[in-house]
Amino acid sequence: MTQEWQQDVLGPDYRALTLELADDDEGAVVATLVRHAPPTPEPLRPSRAVLYLHGWSDYFFQTGLAEFWSGQGVAFYALDLRKYGRSLRPHQTPGYVDDLATYDEDIEAALAQIKQDLGDPARVMLMGHSTGGLTATLWVDRHPGRVHGLVLNSPWLELQGSSVVRHFSAPAVARLAKLQPKAPLPNVDPGFYARTVRKADGGEWTYQDEWRPTPSFPVRAGWLAAVIAGHARVARGLDITVPVLMMASARSLISPWWNEDMRGADTVLDVESLVRRAVHLGPVVTVVRITGGLHDLTLSPAPVRARLYAEIARWCAGYGWE
Fold it and tell me: How far is residue 97's CA from residue 83's CA, in Å, rounded to a whole number?
């Protein structure tokens, strides 16, 4: 059955489209494409588009990001991947896949809709945050010539603690994933990242708690094994031929105890390991460090966001849409 665009939960400037995908072992599967569609005097059909992929235990609600891209004359789309956010169904294990390439179907369905909306000549860039950044990176490497740029917002390119931790942990995780792939692992989320973001805790943002819970959705062995396999692929070196913009906070602050300085740092990933990995993604990689940035740079305080968007605009002027 063909689905139609509906008004999204974000309000009248946003539309959502359900993308029906092939069933998996848990049953019916969908992804959800969200488009920023503010009213205009005349119908617009931009020649450029961005497709955004969210991170782990997350969904798209970053309206400022959509407004930035629209202000650049770019059609903005975001994809709530299968089993996340708008796409999560009661019979599903939240966020679970056992291979990041599973998302190829979600991405292909989204790109097909974008081409239908804008026409085949439209140029598309992929943008990803955290785990979505890892997924986007691997997809672009496997599908050369399909998009015209890659923008990464704190992409999860390596385990916290570097490749040494990955080498020691990977065999144990792989064994558990083979025996009990959906076994939940101990939750180590202290809720500090949410505290830096959520309006009720001193941040700026409100969102659907059931789609972005604190602590996060349970991390399961099969999913973590898939992520570690993705990290190993990145560590071997990629050959992404389009320009890449990789952005991360200027510093990490990862601690079992709360510190107010966390409101200006990445409290989730080791940004130094991300930067080291980024320069091996392809021949043209721009790395930008954002002072005061949170893990999701688009949720940082307003002056930090202004710097972030200025850097994206500058990069686009030099490298974007090649």
Answer: 9
Strands (E), the chain: 6-8, 11-24, 27-36, 48-53, 75-80, 123-129, 150-153, 244-249, 285-290
Domain that holds residue 145: 6-318
Retrieve residue 90's tokens.
């009661």
Residue 221 maps to which CATH number?
A: 3.40.50.1820
User: Residue 239 has what DSSP assignment?
Assistant: -
Sign of CA dihedral 235, 237, 242, 247: positive
Max distance between CA atoms of the chain, in angstroms, equals 58
- Map residue 252 onto helix, strand or coil: strand
Let me know if residue 134 belongs to a domain: yes
The predicted model scores a pTM of 0.95
> Would you say residue 1 lies in a domain?
no
How far is the C-alpha of 78 from the C-alpha of 107, rounded, in Å?
10
Copy the structure tokens of residue 273. Answer: 């390991």
> Could you give the angle at which helices 131-142 and 221-235 cross, rounded to 10 degrees?
50
| pLDDT tens column, 79-123 | 999 999 999 999 999 999 999 999 999 999 999 999 999 998 899
pLDDT digits (tens, 9 = 90+) for 213-228: 998 999 999 999 999 9
